[in-house]
Design a protein that fits this description.
The complex is a heterodimer of chains A (262) and B (110).
Chain A lengths: L2 E5 L4 H12 L3 E6 L5 E2 L5 H14 L6 E4 L10 H18 L1 H6 L3 E5 L11 H10 L2 H8 L7 H28 L3 E7 L5 H4 L3 H8 L15 H12 L10 E4 L3 H5 L6
Parallel strand pairs in A: 1-2, 1-4, 2-3, 4-5, 5-6, 6-7
Helix pairs in contact in A: 1-10, 2-3, 3-6, 3-7, 5-7
Chain B lengths: L2 H10 L3 H6 L1 E9 L10 E4 L1 H13 L4 E7 L4 E8 L2 E12 L5 E8 L1
Parallel strand pairs in B: 1-6
Antiparallel strand pairs in B: 1-2, 3-4, 4-5, 5-6
Classes of the chains: A alpha/beta (262), B alpha+beta (110).
Protein name (chain B): Nuclear transport factor 2 family protein
């Protein structure tokens, strides 16, 4: 059985993914702020390095899979956290364990979001993230934005996820040539503890982002619907899949962007 | 009311459910105005898709019509607003079934 590391597995999609991997008999290492096997703050460079060091210490023979799932929503109210955790935290961990994945021809799965296809991201921020990659500069830019404005938080969230998806695509060829597959999952809106308690207005906004497989049900995706695809992508069954941004949103993207076949 | 009038009424009222009910189960709505607004064309197949699609567009204020005028039995002109970008458009009911439900409706720049 394999060894898998996963970030953000103390709750939600991550917890369900961890559960499925354990059911298959794998060893799973949860890296999270709280409740993890490795408790670190992935929003900080120190926390990321600690996690990478610890994984090398625990499994110098390599990893079969790295699932980068930790992230916060655009409504978290902390713009710097959105940038640091969602983008820099993910890229740093994936790159940090690349050598461990190479050793076992493992795979990496990154959680993005189906909102990347809906045009709400900021191309300038995406370009700064992907093409410059200077965390301090991006944080400096973001610090002057209005963190109380939900649309600002959402646009930054989408920007980080878009940048992640593009990063996955960009590195995928070389990584695969070196024996490591990397893919992303783009979930639709998922039922979590947060969405269960949100306001009626917020729920109406969520329901305006339709999920065709849930037509008429006014409900969101279940975490296991996403987790099962993540486990598949991380497995050898997906050995032919690389550089793919897999939308797991019940068909929302196809509905809203039917002409985008590539 | 003729189908084109019902279409205009539903669009003006942002009534996505009512709009969908104007179509046959496999009815098609194609909007070719979108490319002028730097968006992909809309090709929406089936009444449930039309319901969900316009629920999204209306809900997020990404689509509305202004100054609509029915010009004949099949056509109506209006200003289509795509998230703030205005295009003079003409909608045409191309096909209906025996019950007057729309099988195919196109919207093109005028």
């Amino acid at each position: 059985m394999g060894v898998y590391a996963i970030t953000g597995a103390s709750s939600g999609i991550g917890a369900k993914t961890k559960e499925l991997l354990l059911q298959k008999g794998h060893e799973v290492i949860n890296i999270d702020l709280k409740g993890g096997d490795i408790c670190v703050n992935l929003a900080t460079p120190e926390g990321r390095q600690t996690a990478v060091d610890k994984l090398h210490e625990l499994h110098p023979e390599g990893l079969d899979g790295m699932i980068c799932n930790a992230g916060v929503s655009g409504a978290c109210g902390n713009l710097e956290l959105i940038i640091s955790l969602n983008y820099f935290g993910t890229v740093a961990i994936a790159k940090g364990v690349y050598d461990l994945l190479q050793k076992k021809h493992g795979s990496c799965v990154v959680t993005v979001s189906n909102t990347i296809s809906q045009g709400a991201g900021r191309k300038d921020i995406v370009d700064l993230l992907n093409n410059i990659g200077d965390e301090k500069r991006v944080l400096s830019l973001v610090s002057s934005m209005d963190s109380t404005n939900l649309s600002v938080g959402n646009s930054l969230y989408v920007s980080t996820k878009y940048a992640l998806a593009r990063w996955v695509r960009r590195v995928s060829a070389t990584w695969a040539a070196n024996g490591v597959r990397i893919n992303a999952v783009a979930p639709g809106n998922v039922h979590t503890a947060m969405t269960a308690t949100m306001s009626t207005t917020a729920k109406m906004a969520l329901n305006a982002l339709p999920i065709p497989t849930k037509y008429g049900q006014e409900c969101l995706m279940a975490p296991e619907e996403i987790a099962e695809v993540m486990v598949f992508l991380a497995s050898d069954s997906a050995r032919g899949v690389n550089g793919n941004i897999m939308f797991v949103d019940g068909g929302t993207d196809a509905l809203l962007n039917s002409e985008k076949v590539y | 009311m003729r189908p084109i009038e019902k279409y205009v009424e539903a669009m003006e009222n942002k009534d996505f459910a009512g709009l969908a009910e104007l179509f046959t189960p496999d009815g098609i709505l194609c909007d070719y105005c979108t490319t002028s607004a730097s968006q992909q064309e809309y090709h929406i197949y089936g009444k449930e898709a039309i319901n969900m699609f316009f629920r999204n567009k209306f809900g997020f204020r990404r689509y509305s019509i202004l100054d609509a005028e029915v010009v004949n039995d099949e056509q109506a002109e209006f200003i289509a607003n795509f998230g703030g970008y205005n295009i003079m458009a003409i909608a045409t009911v191309r096909e209906t079934d025996e019950n007057g439900l729309i099988q195919r409706l196109t919207v093109r720049p005028k």
